[in-house]
Amino acid sequence: MCDDHYPNSALCLAEKAIEKFQELLNQKDLEPHHITFVGVLSACSHGGMVELGNQYFRYIKQTTFDHYACLISLFARAGRLKEALDLVEEIHFEANEIIWTSILAACNTYGNVELGEYCARKLLELDPKDPGTCVPLSNIYAAAGRWEDMRLTKKLMKSLKGKKAPWD
Fold first, then answer.
1. Are residues 110 and 152 in the same domain?
2. Domain count of the chain?
3. What is the DSSP string of the chain?
């Protein structure tokens, strides 16, 4: 339930969005637009409402890439990384930087080195010159005590940027 001390917290805002969405669903002759579902799935993701978000996703008649990206983010943020990856493999769209970055960030949060490496490879395949991929991967390695891998990742980042990394 929403905490009165933090009315603008992610959970409170998510609950308010879901409440408004439910009000709209109760209106006769009103059908949610695909953008509306993006908003409600995003609210579920930021509020940690995995089952509700999954339920709303199943309600969508014509899913789009954005709907899948939101659902993947929902699973990833909740630490359900296998389900997020399974969904990436299931979708009929090519996963892009948004999806891989979402899962990589969750790998950083939940310490999943193997999947983090996989996501980083996918991101570097999509944009080989993007040094931003190296930061969460470096953090994943550091948290796992893999100092040599962290050092090599920082070195890669420097080479991609062509200048000093912010931590030097």
1. yes
2. 2
3. ---TT-TTSHHHHHHHHHHHHHHHHTSTT----HHHHHHHHHHHHHHT-HHHHHHHHHH-SS--HHHHHHHHHHHHHTT-HHHHHHHHHHSSS---HHHHHHHHHHHHHHT-HHHHHHHHHHHHHH-TT-GGGHHHHHHHHHHTT-HHHHHHHHHHHHHHHTS--TT-
pTM, two decimal places: 0.84
pLDDT at 3 over 80: no
Mean per-residue pLDDT over the chain, rounded: 89
Range of the domain at 20: 1-95
pLDDT, one tens digit per residue, over 11-24 is 788 888 899 888 88
pLDDT digits (tens, 9 = 90+) for 120-163: 999 999 998 888 899 999 999 999 999 999 999 999 888 887 64
